[in-house]
Design brief:
337 residues, alpha/beta, TIM Barrel, five-stranded parallel β-sheet, three-stranded parallel β-sheet, 14 helices, 11% strand
Length: 337
């Protein structure tokens, strides 16, 4: 449904953002990205198309034209102390990718925009690789290589075992779930793909020294689980372990005076019981359901700006139009059971 409103937004850019904010009574937004790059990133290539620097700067200019940037510490104080916020945006990034240091931070500093980056504690220092990034690397290998008959038979057998259709673009690999992630290492071995070598050669993630430098520059950091599972697919106990350990690791390693967390993938179906147990551990948590309210007071919903086929302005306008439409149906609040 959201994308329908993004398409509509392409044709109603004459409606001012100020009017949309007034009609929706929502003047604080939480846009987020994962990375920005002018180069092809194989570990992301087959998942989505990252924005380049020109697109990113244009979207930042649109944000600055309509809202004022706020940093996480000031934002969290206002939320926790129930102080009013108006016409603000808190910018965030997920996964702790290296481009935040090499590409994004210099742009943000030049424009005077603060940001918070949410890290997977198991991936800092390029210790391991997100299973979806492994999928993208494997798809690239399958699409660009020729294999012997024996290897091709083994590949066919692997796809059959995983009950995945072997299509010409190998996009069936995108159906691999978190619980199947170990099977990706088996396929990598068949394809002579070395994930450890990829981590060493390309350094997709921030290292501790870069994070410390970024903190010194005024950027903030939060946790994003240990190894990025979809929370709807794991038990409550595992949800709590992933959250507590990642928050503790990052808070301790970087001596952070605050504790915050963003859900990997989505907070869809995360129960009230989870938030009740997490109440004393984090100040604020973040989902990514777009412009929405949440029955859990300190869980805030962010707006993803990396949706193929749409720019940031179209996405933001579409979110506002969708919110106003849902207001009629009284469906703008996520309720937790």
């Amino acid at each position: 449904m959201n994308t329908t409103f993004y398409k509509v937004a392409k044709h109603v850019n004459f409606i001012s953002m100020n009017l949309l904010c007034k009609l929706s009574k929502q003047s604080v937004i939480l846009p987020f990205y994962h990375t920005i790059s002018n180069n092809e990133l194989i570990h992301i290539k087959h998942l989505y198309q990252p924005k380049n620097t020109l697109q990113f700067e244009k979207e930042l200019d649109f944000l600055l034209k309509n809202f004022q940037a706020i940093d996480y510490v000031e934002y969290s104080k206002c939320i926790l102390e129930n102080r009013p916020l108006k016409n603000k945006f808190l910018l965030s990034f997920d996964d702790g990718l290296t481009e935040f240091y090499t590409v994004i931070a210099p742009i943000l500093k030049r424009k005077g925009i603060p940001a918070i980056n949410f890290l997977n504690s198991g991936f800092v220092d390029n210790q391991d690789l997100f299973y979806r990034y492994k999928v993208s690397i494997l798809i690239e290998k399958l699409q660009t290589s020729t294999f012997s008959n024996n290897t091709q038979q083994s590949i066919n057998h692997w796809f059959n075992e995983q009950k995945i259709k072997l299509d010409s673009g190998f996009k069936g690999l995108l159906k691999i779930t978190y619980s199947q992630k170990e099977s990706l290492d088996t396929l990598a071995e068949l394809l002579s793909v070395d994930f450890k070598a990829y981590l060493k050669d390309f350094n997709p993630y921030l290292n501790q020294q870069q994070i410390k430098e970024l903190i010194h520059q005024g950027f903030h950091f939060g946790a994003h689980s240990i190894n990025h599972p979809p929370y709807y697919s794991i038990s409550l106990d595992e949800q709590l372990r992933q959250t507590k350990e990642s928050v503790h690791t990052l808070t301790t390693n970087f001596q952070l005076p605050y504790q915050t967390f963003s859900f990997p993938f989505t907070d869809h179906l995360v129960s009230k019981a989870f938030f009740d147990k997490m109440e004393s551990l984090t100040q604020i948590t973040f989902g990514c359901a777009g412009l929405k309210n949440d029955s859990t007071k300190f869980n805030k919903q962010r707006i993803p700006l990396e949706i193929d086929g749409f720019n940031g302005e179209e996405i933001l306008r579409g979110e506002y139009l969708y919110y106003i439409f849902k207001s009629i149906l009284n469906k703008n609040t996520i309720h937790r059971n």
